[in-house]
Each structure stands twice: as C-alpha cells, then as structure tokens.
Amino acid sequence: MTNADRRKFSVTHQSGDLGGSTLVGKAIKSSVDDDASQGGVARLDYIEYSKFRASLNQSGAFAWSEVPLKNSVKLPQIFWGVGRGWDEANVWALERTLAGSTNVDTVKRNFKHLLTYARFLEATSEDWRHFPVSKEDQPLRKFRAFLIEQRDCGEIKSSTAANCIGAIIQFYRYVQLKGLIDSSKPLWEDRIAIVNRHDSTGFKRTILRLASELSIPNRSLIGDVLEDGLLPIDCEQMSQLLRYTSENETIDFHYMLSCGFFTGARIGSIVSFTVDSIRNAREDPLAPGLFRIAVGPGTGISTKFSVSGEIFIPSALLIDLQAYARSTHRLLREAKAGANHKNLLFLSRSGKPYSVATVNTVNFECRKSASAAGLKSLSQFTFHQSRATFGTWFMSLLLESGSKTDALRIVRDAMLHRSESTTLGYISFLENSKSKIYAASAFNAAFTGIKIPIKPNEIRE
Questions:
Q1: Long-range CB contacts (< 8 A, 24+ apart) of 68-73?
Q2: Burial class, 411, CB count within 10 angstroms (exposed 0-12 / middle 13-18 / buried 19+)
C-alpha cells in the first residue's frame, strides 16, 4: 500500500481522569481487508492506533505528547465504497477498545458483521439511519430478513446470522445512547428474557437479560440437505427460471445464474470471472463439448478458501459468454471500468465489479417478480441453490454411466470440495431421495389404494 493510499483517522476524546486534556488517535499504519481489492464497495481496514495528549509546555506553547499503550492496538475501521469513513461505527470501535471493557478480537468480529451490513446498505441504496413508520421499509428489518434467507438457504450458518444481527443491534444501541440517531421513538421492541441456570453447588440462579424482537434464534436446519444446508431444484423449475430471467431480467444476471446452474461455481467465483478465462478455456480431452476453466490463486478468479482447480463449463454456455464478452453492452461498461477491473466479465453499469451482496439482492427481487408472474414454486429460491442443483444433476449422470468412486472424484474436483465427505453428501442425498420415493408410493398405496407410478428412469440404482 502506498502512502497516498494510507488512511488516517482522528478523534477528539475528553477524558476526566486526565484533567480534561485531549487524546487524539492517529493511524500510523493501515492494512486493507482482502475484499477491498474489488473497489467500489464498503471495506474493512485495520489501523495501528496511538494516543497523543494535547497540553501546554513550560514555555506556554501548545505541544503533543504520546501516551504509551500497554499493547499495540489494531483498530478496525469501515469505509464506504465512495471512500468516506463510517464515522459513527468507527468511533464505536475506538471507544470500546480504549475503554478496555471489550476484547479487541470481539470488536474485530463485530466489525466483520457491520461490514456485511454496510455492503447490504450500499447494494440496496438504503440509509442506516432511516426508520420510517412502516416497519417493512426499515433497512434494519430488511437486513434481518436477508440474513434469515441466507441462513435458510445454507449460505451462512445459523450461528452467523444470530451473531451478525446481534452485533448490529449493539451498534444501534450505542448510537441511540450517544444521540447519534433520532431516538424519539423506539427502533424496535425489547423484552426481558429470563435465563435459569444452576451453579456448581446445585443452587438455581436466575439471570435477566434484555432481548430485542429483531434477534434471530440460533437454530440448525433439519432434514436432508446438501453442503451449506442447500436443496436443489428440479430440471423443470430450472428451465422455467432461466426462461424467465432471459425475458425479464438483465443479461448479466441471466448469464450469472446460468453459470451457477451449469458450472456449479459460487457467486464469489462467478462475479470474478475474467474475459481471459473465458477465451482460454480448454476442452476436456475425454469429454468433447465440455470445457475447463482454471480458478483459484493466480487466475484472477476467487474461490472459497483460495482452493485451486478447474471447473467444467458446457460449450453452449461458453459460446454465449464469449459472445457476451465481445458485445457492445459489455464493452461500454469496460470503458468505464478502472484498469484493475477491465478484464472482469461482469461489470455494473458504472463499470464496477459486482459484489456477492448485489447479486443476492438482484436474485431476491427476481424471485419476487417471478413468483408474482406465476412461478410460485420458486418463491424461496436462492442463487446458491444453483450450485446444489448442478452438483445433484452432475452426480446423478455420473452414477448412471460409471462407478461410485469415479463419480465421487469427478464431482469433488469439479465443485472444488476440500473434503470428500462433502461430495459424499450428494450421493447420500440421491440415495435418500430414492428411498423416499419408494416410501411415499407405499404409504399412498396403503392409505388410498392408489399406486403412484414410478418410471424406471426416475430411480437411480
């Protein structure tokens, strides 16, 4: 990072125990979070913080003197996509760290959740201070619904959703207390939660804690699910959705969704696809019509856990993406992009990279309009289900034509699974689904006397 890129942050803090002297914190070093490389979206920086006391020396001149710290403090700070700091949040981090009542690691974890909220606000063009009378229009409640959706589709763990909304609620309590937001009306309703516990001697203890109505219970998903708690959609639903997006959504989103269904790539990988990666895709020597794209460190395409590998892409989709890369629609966006982003396949109207939050928001709006248009079965569809659909479909085809061992290896490599146990989940899911079809048929026959016909090709042996 160059000196021009270094960020400085200063806050004046009145401290009674120092006789009203002023403490000013300055960033002497800054390190940018990995996601900041995308540019144009909120980012999390870490600065090394030092304290200075303002006072008058013996000659009456104004002077600064550094106040020694017991340990070096790496203070988290959030900056909006436009480069302006989120002052209220950054002061919150400063006060909690200086007070010493909160572990700095806890502050850092809270700020990662705040970063998620900041990016959601940017993607939806919402103001975090906006609390209209209509609760459904309040950005905080919209974010809560977004987290629940992400949890239900398996994008995030239940504990992550609960901790994330908890951190945001803490922040709002702070700004209310400090008068940094209109507190003339309550932002939500609180309730007293009673927690009963027994101490080491066996005596019952009752703990009272303040709980918000916006809290998200930490509950795990139950039932047959795949990696990240996902469920696939069937072929007919996929066809209906892609037909709808081709006719009603932007060409960018349609191709992103197509990539999800036919490559199994995660959103973070899809938004980082490059023009070069599409041009340089190589055909698999053992599977004509199926091409491979290198992903991971050194390729420019992001992967979860920075895993290196190759993903499959069918020739029909590859041809479409190559044509899209040369289209006037995309070239006009490339002309607006910065030097570091011109090679990205998907760019926004302003020439900036798409973020995962933006794509999820577009998907949320798409499924609402699709449901209103009659596609009711897709009312709960999430983008990440495209990955589960690809994995299930691909595994099913391979099991038909080869051994379970070969199918396991090919799907594991295609979906960049770090552990074979994740891939085995797809085989277990298919086997359980087959058993449930048989069970449902027997149940129906026993209670209604009507046998459900099962076609041979519907059951995978």
A1: 72/48, 73/48, 73/49, 73/97, 73/104
A2: buried
> pLDDT tens, 156-195?
778 888 999 999 999 999 998 888 887 677 777 777 766 6
The first and second tokens of residue 418, run together, are 């770090």
Tell me phi and psi for residue 235, to 5 degrees.
-60, -40
Dihedral pair phi/psi, residue 45, rounded to 5°: -110, 155
Alpha carbon distances (Å) from 459 to 207, 400, 433, 454: 54, 10, 9, 8
In contact, 404 and 421? CB cutoff 8 Å? no
Relative to beta strand 204-212, strand 22-32 is: unpaired
CA-closest candidate to residue 310, choices 410, 406, 226: 410
pTM, rounded to two decimals? 0.56
Say how many C-beta atoms besides its own lie within 10 A of residue 245's C-beta: 21
Encode 15-32: b = buried (16+ Cβ within 10 Å), e = exposed.
eeeeeebebebbbeebeb
Please count the other Cβ atoms lying within 10 Å of the Cβ belonging to residue 95.
15
pLDDT in tens, 433-442: 665 555 555 5
Domains of the chain, first to last:
3-125 (no CATH), 133-161+181-220 (no CATH), 227-396 (1.10.443.10), 405-458 (no CATH)
Contact by Cβ (8 Å): 411, 426: yes
Q: Packing angle between helix 385-401 and helix 251-263, nearest 10 degrees?
A: 40
Query: Distance of alpha carbon 85 from its chain centroid, rounded?
Result: 21
